[in-house]
Each structure stands twice: as structure tokens, then as C-alpha cells.
Amino acid sequence: MKLKKHMVEKPWGRTDIPSAFGDMEGRRIGEVWFEGDESSLFPILIKWLFTSEKLSIQVHPDDVQAKARGQASGKEECWFIVDAEPGAVLGIGTTKALTPTQLRAASESGEIEHLMDWKPVKAGDFFFIPAGTVHAIGAGITLVEVQQYADITYRLYDYGRPRALHLEDAIDVSNAEPYVDARSGNVDAGPLIINSSYFYVRHVTDAGQLAEMPTETQLALIPVDGEVFVDGERAVAGDCLIFKALPKITFGDGAQLLVAW
User: Which of 14, 104, 155, 202 is catalytic?
Assistant: First the structure.
């Protein structure tokens, strides 16, 4: 089953979204969410992000912190870079450990922008972002995000945009420190294998790699390049398909697929 697309306008979004995602009608789209109907809800949220400017410097709470604030769950996520313009960067963690007092002062003054660890990125890079990680996505990036099914973000700094900040909550849940999570790399150097308490993600380029996928759980198939045929149905970037058992998949030349569950 192909999931429906939900377009989300953002000030940092783009108007040149690939036509396979649908007609954006000139809107500045930053996120495309994939949604099932009430009878087929998928327990994790899958998005594409398209950036023309930096996103806010932000943080997400863990489950305990979110529930203490009346939310259903926290938010852990991972990113797979589909495309990146020359010089594109991600901010993941800070260059040094900051106390809550230091983090507040840096957020209020704007110095936090210069304390972020801005990492150059290219297609095929991937990163797991634990709850509490201070982070920001830079301009000129197209990525797929797989995350807990939660829409909860606390902004620390937003480059002067007229949007609300959430300093109290953000500082309380932040681990403002260098990023050291080993679940990161580039698929050219080794397979993307994300294991977390909430979801799993694999990068697949041929049918033989599908033998490692589970056979008794609901799977999301996300084409990121080229075309694949799933039980004979063509799928390309811009599609997301859900199955309860692994279907027959035929890969076109250069096709790449993310599998999440």
C-alpha cells in the first residue's frame, strides 16, 4: 500500500520539489510526511526534508521528559542524505560541552550558531540523532528522516525568524555536548544499519540484501534513487509503501531503497 503524502510549508523550504512528489502549487514546502489511514497506521513517521535555509537550532525530549510535559512520547530520529549542494552542512552536537547556564547564554546571544559542530555532508551520509542532541539541518540538503511518531521540537535559536523559542524546555532536555553516536557514516564505506529502541533502518541496493529483513512485521519501503518494482508496481523517490510481509522487489539500474520497521 502506498501511503498518502502530507505537504508541510516551512520558511526554510523549497519551491523546486521533484515532480514525483506532486504539484506543490508554488508553495515553499519543507517537509513531506507519509501517512496511512486509521486502519493502517505505521508506528514510525517517515519524512522527506528539502531545505533552502538553515533550520532552527533545536532539540527533542526523550519519552520520560515528553510524558512529564503531557506529550505521548519523545522523539529520536535518523537522517539519510539523498542530495547535498556543495558546502552543505548539518549541525550535530556542540564543539564542547556546555552547562545549562552556558547553553542559555549562547542561545540568547546567538553564539550557539558558532558553537555547533557543523559537519560537511554528501549523498549517502547517515546519522542517528538521540533525544537530547542539539542539532540543526543546513541549507541545500534533501534528506529522508525516520523518527518516532511524534511532532515535538524545542527551539533554542532561529536566526532572528519571528517564531517562538522554547528556551526553558529546550535547555532542560538538552545534552549540549559533542556528538559521538557510532550509528553514523556513509553507505559507500559500509551498510546503513540503524538499530534503536524505536525503529530499524536498512539501506538496500539489490534483492539479495533483503534476506536480512524481518518477515513477520510491518515494513516501510522508501525508494531514494532510481526505480524499483514492488510486486510488479513501480515505485520511485516520492513514494512510501507499507507491507506486512516482504514483497517481491525488482531493482532498476542504480536503484536505492531504505527499509524501515
Answer: 155
Kindly report the number of other CB atoms within 10 A of residue 179's CB atom. Answer: 21
Distance CA 254, CA 143 (A): 18
Asked if 202 is an active-site residue, the reply is no
Cell of 14: 523549497
Q: Which single residue is written with the C-alpha cell 489511514?
A: 37
Instruction: For 173-221, write each residue's pLDDT tens digit.
Output: 999 999 999 999 999 998 888 999 999 999 999 999 988 888 888 999 9
